Amino acid sequence: MRRTQTSAVASDYNIQRTVDLYASVSGRDLGGVSKDIRRIIADAEKNLPKGTTIVLRGQVESMRTSFIGLGLGLAGAIVLVYLLMAVNFQSWLDPLIIITALPGALAGILWMLFVTQTTLSVPALMGAIMCIGVATANSILLVTFANERREEEPDLSPLDAALDAGFTRLRPVLMTALAMVIGLLPMSLGLGEGGEQNAPSAGP
């Protein structure tokens, strides 16, 4: 028998003995910190003994799972909306024209995230989905009006119909966008207790 030292608490994960190291983030976003930690882990794994592994768990894993789920959900929503619009318009081209408004909306979202110095997070992605929904609704409004103008005047060219729809429907589009901005402005300022958690949802 000999005297030795050991940890006061023994932890197991997947029936394996583990040593838990806890850390919190201060002054930086979780994604950037996790990227640096993964780089350190990759360097440390080169000198690990056989049978020893380093696993990064906690909020980082939850964030990664949420990002994957939201990304797949967004892609599936775009496909589903396209198919529904194809059934509604009885055309494959009109929904494609409507969907082409999404890159412009995404560019505006990225620009606002950069201007406000907001990191990409789950609330920010939820706000991006809401913004994409408004952009799609405005695009549907313009395409529908352009089709109605061409039905009223068969000799009207697609370009003239699109320009007419843009001039005529400019006020409803601006009213919709302004209503969304005014409604989300208090949330974007992060007012009240815990408001900073919901502020990224209104940032885009």
List the helices and strands and how they pair.
Elements lengths: L10 E2 L4 E2 L11 H15 L14 H31 L3 H7 L1 H15 L6 H31 L5 H11 L1 H19 L6 H8 L2
Antiparallel strand pairs: 1-2
Helix pairs in contact: 2-3, 2-5, 3-5, 4-5, 5-6, 5-8, 7-8
In short:
The chain has eight helices and two strands. The protein has helices at 30-44, 59-89, 93-99, 101-115, 122-152, 158-168, 170-188, 195-202; strands spanning 11-12, 17-18.
Structure description:
The structure is a single chain. With 204 residues, the protein is mainly alpha-helical. It has a domain at 70-202: Multidrug efflux transporter AcrB transmembrane domain (Multidrug efflux transporter AcrB transmembrane fold, Up-down Bundle), CATH 1.20.1640. It is 67% helix and 2% strand. The chain contains 8 helices and 2 strands. It has a two-stranded antiparallel ribbon. It starts with 10 loop residues before the first strand and ends with a helix. The model has no long low-confidence stretch (mean pLDDT 79).
Short descriptors:
204 residues, Multidrug efflux transporter AcrB transmembrane fold, 8 helices, 2 strands, elongated
Outline the low-pLDDT stretches.
Answer: none
Strand order of the largest sheet: 1-2
Which fold name is given in CATH as the topology of one domain?
Multidrug efflux transporter AcrB transmembrane fold
The level 1 CATH classification of one domain is Mainly Alpha
**CATH homologous group name of one domain:** Multidrug efflux transporter AcrB transmembrane domain
Total helices: the number is 8
